[in-house]
Amino acid sequence: MIKTERLLHLKSSRGRKVRVVREHYLRERVPCYSALCQADCDNDGKVLPGDLTHYVIPDVGIVLDFLEILEFREIQGIIFTQTACQAVQHNKGRRQYNRLRNLLKDPRHDCVLFVNEFQKYSYCPREKGESQEKWQTRCVYSAAVWFYNHLAGLKDIVMVTDDSEAVAQYSSLNSGVYVISMQEYLHSFWSDVNAAHELYSSIVQAVQERESEGSEREYQEHLPPEVLEAGIKCGRYMQGILSVNKHRAQQEALVTTQGFSNKSTGLSCDVLVLGVKNRNRAVHGDSVVVELLPHSEWRGRTTALTEAQGEERSMEDQNNQPMPTGRVVGILQRNWRDYVVTFPTRETQTQSRNSQKILTVPWDHRIPKIRISTQQADTLQDHRVVVRIDSWDSTSLYPNGHSVRVLGRAGELETEVQTILIENCISVPPFSEAQLREMPVVSPERPWNPDPEQVTTRRDLRQTHLVFSIDPKGCEDVDDTLSVSRLPKGGLELGVHIADVTHFVKEGSLTDQEARARATTYYLADRRYDMLPEVLSANLCSLLGGVDRYAMSVLWELDSASLEVRSVWFGRTLIRSSYQLHYELAQALLNGEDATVPELNQLNPEEQSQRLAELTQALETLTHVARHLRAQRDRGGALELEGVEVRAQLDSEKNITALVPRQPLEVHETVAECMIFANHWVARKIQESFPHQALLRHHPPPRQEFFSQLQESARARGFTIDTRSNKSLADSLEQAVDPQDPVVNRLLRMMATQAMSQAMYFSTGAVPADQYYHYGLALDRYTHFTSPIRRYADVIVHRLLMAALDLDRGLSSTLASNRELEETAQHINNRNRAAQHAQRLSTELFQCLFFRERDPESDPSCVSDAVIYAIRDNGLLVFVPQYGVKGPVYLRSREGEVLTFGADGHCEWSSGTVKKHSDHITTSSLSGSTTFRLFQHITVRISVQSNRCHADSLNLEVIQNAPHETSNPDLVPTQSKVQLIQEVHRQAEESLQKASVKPKLSREERQYCQSKQPNLYSLLEEIRELSLMDEEASAKKLCATTA
């Protein structure tokens, strides 16, 4: 090791330039991370393969400007130098630096880090008078030469730089080390990666336009970081996350402060930011610093309904109480992502004569227009394009960006589906060949059988336990089974057996990395994207009847009288499910009805009767235990809130043929209680074993102010809702029933659901013990253990449980630290939110596509019953039970006219006034007055409000101040939702056939290897899982929907 010194030019906290001399140590042995290493380097971790044609080392400028291209998996053998990484950290900020670090960590990418500035023979001290850019280029070239010599000339090294002087200077110095430009590199080595070439052209244009920006300032400059930090500490400034109001994107945004309390005013709340000038180039999601305006300039938020096309009320015309109002003075962290934009038509394009600068309109209303430089403006009219923001200088009204790829023409089904995925940062590429090679090979010729070694180490339950599953009809991916029996010495044994996914998905494997990145299975209205390859999710990890399967089991010994737990056993097992029941069959057996169990058809009558009696007895015992478990949680305050209650009918190919109302069965609650019981006990076990490194799930109590709408609405109907605790809330909702209108209680429970905070995963070392509590389920500790096929959190919990069992046996295990586990928990929480949002947007998309081709004036399916559940200043919020749609109904138009009804029931718009009360709203005009009350049934007409640049939306228009004549609030039509999906697909396929093009959906199905339509399990179980509710809490009514 050789000691030397480095001279650094730094800035002090006061902004002064400081010269600092630091010790710098050089080593002869630094890992090269190449499989061709001839010097026996200590290459732990990811290693570059030796069968590539070359290794490539990008220059600092290439890494700064073209990192997106280097992220392509097709481009292999990349060596990032320490010099380039430090330049990214200093010039691009923490977010871009973390992006580069994650790229280096990802085993799916063939790239490594070489610490060239600590290698004795590659280190280059900076010469006197040498510019930083020239020195960085010389360092990278020196690293390239060192690599070529270190590998004894076995591999050609390509250095990529866009510095033409460097290409001329270094290209002929060393044979085997080639110095070329980025464009030449792509054309020479990756000519078939068209997406990389298109992205390169887009970035080059964006860089050129950025360099030619004008100097006239449009916004205030952001304050320096040291000033922001000092201002936050002294209380002058506040920091938080900017959230733009999607309905008033140009006028209103909130900064959600992070535990800030102003020292002078004692405030601890959100800050309102009005107008784009006060937003000062901050984009939705950015971490910003705000300064409060004088109290005289504070304003309140608008509460009137607003239409997408812009019915806006002046910020001065408010009745709301003023709230803290401020302006953005600095940005701590950008949260830019990929955005989907639409290119304007030629008539609306704004561009100069000498360039192709196009103002594109983002699909997300909250994002400002983005200026793109392109030569394809005419070609891309009315197309959806993925873009990235590069910069937003104070001299530019809009941010500058570059296009990444074209999705397709706006309005086409596949384009809109891909838009939803990208807007929610959902990446679901097909599983790679390397990932699939990690999976067991299963075929009719080579069926899977348990490993003899596993048979000896696992507890074998195949002959000793009656194991069965209860799932929706047609379910193929069965990840949980149950067992219950009476013990010889008295007492009961209850068992929950979960698919042992972790046996097949090893920690750190490529499949595990992909599962962690996805974090969940994504369900859209017409398809799903699995977290795990199909060979696991639908085969080896599906606990099907009559086949041997690996499982993780929890077995309780219960007192036969009190049903109290005497003991519990956790461990890996080998099971064979005897019966694969569906809910209706299990309920029929419990009710004593005649029912056919397929597994008993081949037996003689006597044996069939004996086995049927044994199964029925097990179901009755299971139901008895579940009732006791539910009663225990009810006493603690467990909630029952409103959830989706639908059941799918499948054809022989497992495709959905109809959706019908799901009949509430007690067996639903029985299965749910057993799953909740298992999750609770596993949570206890891993938390006790690892107090600071266990993954749990908590549900914080909701803020009381969120219950205001629920309480006001209930009061209008004569009910009182006590929200002081989960127990009092549950009791109040149970009593708030109108015998004449069951939809009232349903709406109240939906409002209670909306008031709930979201349940979140967390590491026990990051949260105080008194915050472990699960408000909805009324449990002190809770986690997710029962669905590892579809949730990565469950995979982590399985591994923690096995580590806890090893700890009991005196064995040690390597666990993630509290910090690492908390990062993973936050990642899973973010992915779950994205999945929920994507699912909701997908449903809205299909609703709009379904109604778009229908004439609202003549088609009876466009007229439906609606129930008023909220009153606003200029209209109503209604719920349409037939389609599960919520939306606004306007009583005052943008022109100031109001809606009234004559004596004959005919509605008309005329000049008048609207007067809002707590439980009703009245419109008055010369023709009379009309009153609308909370929970009143009215008739609405549904149409589609088209928007070329954004998502279409449904428009609800009241046509009669009375219930729809053919409506029945207790009955949802059985065909409406399935018609919605099937009709949209039919229309899309017909339009494609007319154009002599193969259907895009089939192509996507082949590309992504995903199901084209959801099976029963995806619709009933997965949609419910991705809501704010815990899947295990679903029963007759979903208990604790925010689990």
Automatic annotation (TrEMBL):
InterPro entries linked: Dis3_CSD2, NA-bd_OB-fold, RNase_II/R, RNase_II/R_CS, RNR_Ribonuclease, Rrp44_CSD1, RRP44_S1
Q: Which cofactor does it need?
A: Mg(2+)
> What is an example of a Pfam family matching this protein?
Rrp44_CSD1
Q: What is its EC number?
A: 3.1.13.1
Asked if the Swiss-Prot or TrEMBL record annotates the protein with the keyword Chloroplast, the reply is no
According to its UniProt record, where is this protein located?
Answer: Cytoplasm
What's the main place this protein lives? cytoplasm
This one is known as DIS3-like exonuclease 1
**Positions of the region Disordered?**
307-326
Q: Which residues form the RNB domain?
A: 458-807
Write down the SUPFAM superfamilies for this protein, in alphabetical order: Nucleic acid-binding proteins
- The reply to whether Plastid figures as a keyword in the UniProt entry is no
> Lineage of the native species?
Eukaryota, Metazoa, Chordata, Craniata, Vertebrata
Name the enzyme's class.
hydrolase
Give the catalysed reaction(s), semicolon-separated: Exonucleolytic cleavage in the 3'- to 5'-direction to yield nucleoside 5'-phosphates
Q: What protein family does this chain belong to?
A: Belongs to the RNR ribonuclease family.
Q: What GO MF annotations does this protein's record show?
A: enzyme binding; exoribonuclease II activity; RNA binding
Q: Which domain of life is it from?
A: Eukaryota
Recite the UniProt keywords alphabetically.
Cytoplasm, Exonuclease, Exosome, Hydrolase, Magnesium, Nuclease, RNA-binding
Could you state one GO biological process linked to this protein?
gene expression
User: What are the GO cellular component annotations?
Assistant: cytoplasmic exosome (RNase complex)
